[in-house]
User: Fold this.
Amino acid sequence: MSGTEPAPRFRPGDRVRVRFADPPGHIRTPWYIRGRAGVVERLCGAYGNPEELAYNRPGTPRQPLYRVRFRQSQIWPDYRGVPTDTVDIEIYQHWLEPGEAG
Assistant:
């Protein structure tokens, strides 16, 4: 990781919230997950920012990418599956904020 890349802010087990924003352009963060809270499952590494790469820009600085686990019942209020069912989504750090404690 170069000195210009942001350091990872979160570790596995940390609670996070996905920013609720609707900026123009190519966005990799699914709409249905914005504003939702989850738990970091793992840090996947640092990668070029896809929101910049989509416009043939260099995608720098590279961004930490996390796999975040969400309870499906907290994403879809009418979810009828098992209450412990989860969905994992890979989300870049610039979309994540610290979440509330457990």
Remarks:
- The longest strand covers residues 37-47.
- Strands lie at 15-18, 37-47, 63-71, 86-92, 96-98.
- The chain has a mean pLDDT of 90.
- The domain at 15-98 is CATH 2.30.30.50 (SH3 type barrels.).
